[in-house]
Design goal:
3 domains; alpha/beta; 350 residues; Rossmann fold; Isopropylmalate Dehydrogenase; ten-stranded mixed beta sheet; 12 strands; two-stranded antiparallel sheet; binds nicotinamide-adenine-dinucleotide
């Protein structure tokens, strides 16, 4: 059987890690018919949009995509392609497993955490008003001068619907993967309306899993400290969008860095697999960055396609290459390039 999968090379270092990942996936023996679709800065220059409709259509049709990173201009310019894909396809759950493999540079061993980040709401909603805009002035008036004059304003929406489905996703994931605990993380002591609603909704969902999965809450600031001191006490962590983004980089750091941090964006029937890291434009074309994060994302994709044996085999080969340290990239203490690392994984597949 062959699977049809949309392949988005992205920009910056995206195309090189995607090329290596495709070779590795093909070497597992799983047959994939890749449909290449563009996104990012390069296609923006050609077509005037960083996310052509044909790319979204391809993902909608194939229901599964493997995606390289895409650059987002800071402060000005087009909005994030990554956020647009997640919102357009309603990929509400961002799953980011953080696991230590023996041989990575980390002060911790045996970490096996999963970050579940809400992907469609919160400050990522893109509802923003520039300083001195009519809307900003109206909101300042509504705030009864709690907001300073001439402020720019970003809106943080959190809904019961959005929270319910992400927390349920986290608990269902915990049950399916023999996990013990879900920790919900917010700053509800300060944002009583939005983060307060997240907790209130999460507590209701948690009741349905009583006796099966433990539920607890942490404030985001405390959680950051706890994670760098005792990450082993955490299991599945569920958070609104922005805290989830920040905390998943922190967790990536705990398990050896962005080079080994995979991710998946999941909706009800569409899945887009991509690394946590960005396009690292300064390393573009240098055959330098670590492809493991994207290869581990491809491993999540194989699991999603129910190719469990190929996924296990792939993970074993990755673990061996990391452990042996002979063919790893700079971030893992080696001198190998992207391609050489990929080749080493292929040679270790059984
Ligand atoms: P980045 O993740 O691209 O890089 C930060 C640093 O992490 C790099 O300089 C490098 O030292 C290290 N790093 C990242 N990936 C690595 C890899 N595979 N191997 C080895 N080292 C690696 O983050 P950034 O520089 O903040 O962002 C660059 C661009 O990527 C921005 O435009 C940002 O918006 C975008 N971005 C895209 C995605 C995505 O496509 N999903 C995610 C995050 C950031």
């Amino acid at each position: 059987m062959s699977y049809k999968v949309t392949l988005i090379p992205g920009d910056g270092t995206g195309p090189e890690i995607v090329e290596t990942t495709v070779k590795v996936v093909e070497a597992t023996g799983v047959k994939i018919d890749w449909e290449i679709a563009d996104a990012g800065i390069d296609i923006m220059e050609k077509e005037g949009t960083p996310l052509p409709k044909s790319t979204l259509d391809s993902i909608k049709k194939n229901k599964v995509a493997l995606k390289g990173p895409v650059t987002t201009p800071i402060g000005t310019g087009f909005r994030s392609v990554n956020v647009a894909i997640r919102k357009e396809l309603d990929l509400f759950a961002c799953l980011r497993p953080c696991k230590t493999y023996k041989g990575v540079k980390s002060v911790f061993e045996d970490i096996d955490l999963v970050v579940v980040r809400e992907n469609t709401e919160d400050l990522y909603a893109g509802v923003e008003f520039d300083e001195n805009s009519v809307e900003a002035k109206q909101i300042i008036e509504l705030s009864k001068n709690k907001i300073r004059e001439n402020s720019a304003i970003s809106i943080k929406p959190i809904s019961a619907f959005g929270t319910e489905r992400i927390v349920k996703f986290a608990f269902d994931y915990a049950v399916k993967n023999n996990r013990k605990k879900v920790t919900a993380v917010t700053k509800a002591n300060i944002m009583k309306a939005t983060d307060g609603l997240f907790y209130k909704t999460a507590r209701e969902i948690a009741k349905n899993y009583e006796g099966k999965i433990e539920y607890e809450e942490r404030l985001i600031d405390n959680m950051c400290m706890q994670l760098v001191q005792k990450p082993k006490i955490y299991d599945v962590i569920v958070l609104p969008n922005l805290y989830g983004d920040i905390l998943s980089d922190l967790c990536a750091g705990i398990v050896g860095g962005l080079g080994v941090a995979p991710g998946a964006n999941l909706g009800n029937d569409i899945a887009v697999f991509e690394a946590v890291h960005g396009s690292s434009p300064k390393y573009k074309g240098l055959n330098k960055v670590n492809p493991i994060a994207l290869i581990l994302s491809a491993k999540l994709m194989l699991e999603y396609l129910s190719e469990q044996e190929a996924a296990r085999n792939l993970e074993k080969a990755i673990a061996k290459v990391i452990f042996e340290k002979k063919h790893v990239t700079y971030d893992l203490g080696g001198t190998a390039g992207t391609k050489e690392l990929g080749q080493a994984i292929i040679e270790n597949l059984s």
